[in-house]
Specification:
The complex is a heterodimer of chains A (300) and B (136). By secondary structure, chain A is an all-alpha fold. Chain A contains 13 helices and no strands. Chain A has helices spanning 8-30, 37-69, 80-103, 105-111, 122-125, 142-147, 151-166, 178-183, 187-194, 211-216, 241-258, 266-269, 283-296. Chain A is globular, with a radius of gyration of 20 Å. Chain B has two domains: 1-30; 39-132. In chain B, the strands form two sheets. Chain B has a four-stranded antiparallel sheet, with helices on both faces. In chain B, strand 3 (76-82) and strand 4 form a beta hairpin. The termini of chain B are far apart. Classes of the chains: A mainly alpha (300), B alpha+beta (136).
């Protein structure tokens, strides 16, 4: 690498803590059920555990990135426009990763941690995976390395992307001016992403720029008069930290073990909820049935 | 300081911070005391748990901590409080049922979800019978 950069997340952590405290004080009188101490503890422990996982596997991921950098098609210089290009492209590849993380069960097994809280507050933002390395999610950033962006630059903009996504995990902010909501990912757009309401399932995958969802047909606007329910389709029903981390991996193992041979690996690469005998529901099936019910209801 | 020491210090700081925040959430009384107070609310919760679940029979725990519901297809849904929200499971013929006068204890077979004991009053026996004859 040509440069060594600091990790901006280290400097953001005090701000994260302060903002969580402010949000807790805000909900105290307005809606105390927006926070739940055990849920908060689980979310924050997941966040801390993910930094430990990052420390354990970060070296391997960096080594893979450096290997890829040796095969780059060009060398992008350290100029102002390179930073902008890297940030925008990194956000695009984040969109690709995030969409895959919801549509492929193997990736979902690592990402589900972030969605398994029934709450939506700033502590939910820190609910990060411990098992991303095993889901190979770092591979989604490799195209940037092959293009010729320095891995240090990619890591830095990736950290900025992560910091941006912290503040959008809140119900304290309703909506921003239309131009901002059109371009940027906002609390409103991301509430949709965390919702389990059938109309909202698997929508708004964006990290920083919501334009990716608008471009690729995965955008849905938040509707004012529909209460949002957060979490996952089959709520965990426990605050057990280890079960929160590993439950989907355990589910994959159980399904692969018990499925007929020709269906075994479908339980890893098909969408969450897929089953060879149709006994479970994917998000597409839930949404379709919901849409069918809407059409069956007589017009007022 | 070596990188390992710095990492360990960061980890220690993070653990202290999360313990402080969880303590603060408890100190502020966050979480509330959610209960099921009406059939209408129970229906809404059922629809949240299984989209489109339309109960034709509802039994709510006397303290509002959970409920049992049955739809027209004979599916039985168990819901219980989970923190400041509710979680539920569809029951099948492997579900464990134990009746003790007005109290019905239902196990889903999921260790992490646990058993749920509902005070259903005189309805407990009726629901226990229904659960023992599940053919799903």
């Amino acid at each position: 690498m040509s440069e060594t950069l600091f990790n901006p997340v280290d400097y953001a952590v005090p701000a994260f803590i302060l903002l969580i405290i402010l949000e807790m004080l805000w909900v105290r009188n307005y809606a105390p059920e927006k926070y739940e101490p055990r849920d908060t503890l689980t979310s924050l422990a997941l966040g801390t555990g993910s930094t430990v996982a990052g420390a354990l596997f970060g070296g391997t991921m960096l080594a893979i990135a450096m290997w890829g950098y040796d095969y780059r098609i060009t060398t992008i210089p350290w100029t102002w426009w390179a930073w902008i290009a890297c940030f925008v492209l990194d956000d695009f590849f984040y969109y690709v990763f995030h969409r895959s993380a919801h549509r492929v069960r193997w990736f979902w097994a690592a990402h589900v941690n972030h969605h398994s809280s029934q709450h939506y507050n700033l502590s939910t933002a820190l609910r990060q995976t411990w098992t991303g390395f095993f889901a190979f999610t770092f591979l989604f950033r490799l195209p940037l390395v092959f293009i010729g962006f320095d891995p240090a630059m990619i890591l830095f903009v990736g950290a900025i992307n992560l910091i941006y996504q912290f503040w959008i995990h809140t119900e304290a902010i309703n909506k921003f001016p239309r131009w901002f909501e059109y371009i940027m990912n906002t609390p409103s757009h991301h509430r949709v992403h965390h919702a389990t309401n059938p109309r909202y399932l698997d929508r708004n995958y964006a990290g920083v720029f919501i334009i990716w969802d608008r471009m690729f047909g995965t955008f849905t606007e938040e509707i004012e008069d529909e209460k949002i329910r957060y979490g996952i389709v089959k709520q965990l029903g426990t605050f057990n930290l280890l079960w929160s981390v590993f439950h989907e991996w355990a589910g994959i193992a159980r399904d692969i073990w018990s499925a007929p041979w020709k269906h075994k690996f479908s339980y890893a690469w098909r969408p969450p909820g897929w089953s060879h005998d149709g006994s479970r529901d994917t998000s597409d099936m839930i949404r379709q049935r919901w849409l069918d019910r809407q059409h069956e209801q007589p017009a007022e | 300081m070596t990188p390992l020491v710095i990492t360990l210090l960061k980890l220690g700081g993070s653990i202290l911070a999360i313990l402080f925040l969880a303590w603060l959430a408890r100190l502020l009384g966050l979480g509330g005391d959610v209960r099921i107070r009406s059939e209408e609310q129970a229906r809404a919760i059922a629809d949240e748990i299984i989209s489109g679940f339309d109960p034709v029979g509802i039994a709510i725990d006397r303290a509002g901590m959970g409920a049992l519901m049955r739809d027209a297809r004979g599916r039985h849904l168990l819901i219980r409080r989970h923190g400041a929200h509710f979680a539920g499971r569809l029951l099948d013929n492997h579900s464990e049922t134990r009746l003790d006068q007005n109290f019905l204890t239902v196990g889903t077979g999921e260790r992490t979800f646990g058993r749920v004991t509902l005070n259903l009053g005189k309805e407990a026996q009726y629901w226990a019978s229904g659960l023992r004859h599940l053919n799903i």
